[in-house]
Amino acid sequence: MKQLVENRKITEKWRGIEKRLTDDRELLDLAVEDNSLLPGVQRDVDQAASYLEQMEFELAFSGKYDDRNAILSIHAGAGGTESQDWADMLLRMFLRWGEKQGYKTEILDISPGEEAGLKSVVVSLAGDYAYGHLKSEHGVHRLVRLSPFNADHARHTSFALVEVIPEAQTNVDVTILPEDIKIEVFRSSGPGGQHMQKSSTAVRITHNPTGIVAASQSERSQLQNKSIAMKILEARLFEKELERRAEEKARLKGKRIEAGWGNQIRSYVLHPYKMVKDHRTEFQSGNPESVLAGNLDDFITAYLRSGAGSEND
């Protein structure tokens, strides 16, 4: 029924544009006799063309899971404080982008850095086609800048790994048996007030058959943290299943390039010049401050239009 509703919505959009263009054609015939109608017809045609272009772009979201919410993880690379600060910058970038899109964003789990930034963070972004948009961000992000943590302000290169997976549907994508998991509670180590520090509210869940671990300590309630940890575990098990399917597919299609530490997808250069460049599409911007403020749409659009994401669907 859900798929039927979605298909009906899509069909109604295309039928609507068809009717609109038919009406414009009839108005154009009248405008031939009455030139005063031409400006209005031109406006309608321009609007219809813009709407049609947007609808054609939406066809890029043809992946099986593109319409789902997204679970985004950021992991600081080697380099201590520098890379941990870079991971924190990326978190702000994605949160601001999500807010601009009108998505509901929620930090599910976070591990702060020793001096600044963060070691890792897991974020949920809920909204239409959240995964379809954010799958373009999966991979290694590289930053080049003058170090704010070095007395000499020397140029430094930092790396962070961004992982994006679709949110799993319980009992549809994955089934977790109670006997297959181990649940542990512990005291939260991050900031959060006196209550979180003194009570064992943080939850860690281990999936014994795979060894996958998911934890949450961001909420005051142990029950809330358990629910979030289960959500993360489901998504990671779903990711593992998708990887298994991809490996099976790769045996038939040939070698599949994985996102790894040696395969950065995008570079953000703040010194000696200013530029953000996507190495998959060659799209670039000379305004890294704007990109880091959450203006990612041009990069996402370039990726989707290139068809680069279709190989992962």
Summarize the structure.
With 313 residues, the protein is α+β, with helices and mostly antiparallel strands. The protein has 8 helices and 11 strands.
Folded structure, characterized:
- It is a single chain.
- The two termini are 23 Å apart.
- 42% of the residues lie in helices and 24% in strands.
- It is of the alpha+beta class.
- The model is unreliable at 191-197 and 253-260 (pLDDT under 50).
- The chain has helices at residues 2-33, 38-58, 81-101, 130-134, 194-198, 222-253, 288-292, 297-306, and strands spanning 70-76, 104-112, 118-126, 139-146, 155-166, 181-186, 202-207, 212-216, 264-269, 275-278, 284-285.
Main attributes?
8 helices; Double Stranded RNA Binding Domain; 11 strands; 313 residues; alpha+beta; globular; 24% strand; three-stranded antiparallel sheet; eight-stranded mixed sheet; Alpha-Beta Plaits; 3 domains
Q: Which helices and strands appear, and what pairs or packs with what?
A:
Layout: H1 2-33, H2 38-58, E1 70-76, H3 81-101, E2 104-112, E3 118-126, H4 130-134, E4 139-146, E5 155-166, E6 181-186, H5 194-198, E7 202-207, E8 212-216, H6 222-253, E9 264-269, E10 275-278, E11 284-285, H7 288-292, H8 297-306
Parallel strand pairs: 4-9
Antiparallel strand pairs: 1-3, 1-5, 2-3, 4-5, 6-7, 7-8, 9-10, 10-11
Helix pairs in contact: 1-2
